[in-house]
User: Which sequence fits this backbone?
């Protein structure tokens, strides 16, 4: 039916199925509309704020355990080993932050859908994207917090 309509109507008329129309509209609002731009800026700002917060947590942990890290350096452990410890901490923070954040996001999606009847939901692709961003965010914070450990001299601590 779509093909017959497209053949009989003039060339300046676009004949679409409901799914095709929905895909075009979704693409427009996500990429060209103001809403997509605002959400994109929100993701960037959230990422930067997350990096700073996780950095502060890891930096405080490094400062509180500086003597232990200095002891490890004095025993011969190199910076790569200490970086792996910080990255493990960062991944633990990413996991512990992602789980409740995911639950809250799913709840907010349901509330938004109930209030506006907009067809939004947490997709698997979106959940994986946010998880990857969370892991990257925490890893960057761990790498930046590592600068404090590189500068520590075990002789100065004791």
Assistant:
């Amino acid at each position: 039916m779509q093909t017959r309509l497209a053949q009989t109507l003039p060339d300046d008329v676009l004949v679409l199925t409901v799914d095709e129309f929905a895909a075009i509209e979704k693409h427009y609002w996500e990429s060209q509309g103001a809403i997509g731009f605002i959400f994109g800026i929100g993701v960037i700002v959230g990422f930067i704020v997350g990096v700073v917060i996780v950095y502060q947590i890891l930096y405080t942990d490094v400062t509180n355990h500086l003597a232990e890290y200095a002891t490890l350096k004095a025993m011969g452990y190199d910076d790569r080993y200490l970086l792996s410890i910080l990255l493990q901490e960062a991944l633990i923070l990413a996991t512990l932050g992602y789980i409740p954040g995911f639950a809250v996001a799913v709840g907010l999606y349901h509330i938004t859908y109930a209030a506006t009847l907009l067809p939004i939901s947490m997709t698997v692709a979106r959940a994986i994207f946010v998880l990857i961003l969370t892991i990257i965010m925490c890893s960057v914070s761990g790498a930046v917090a590592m600068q404090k450990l590189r500068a520590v001299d075990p002789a100065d601590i004791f």
Summary: Helices lie at 2-8, 18-31, 34-64, 66-74, 79-116, 124-151, 154-157.
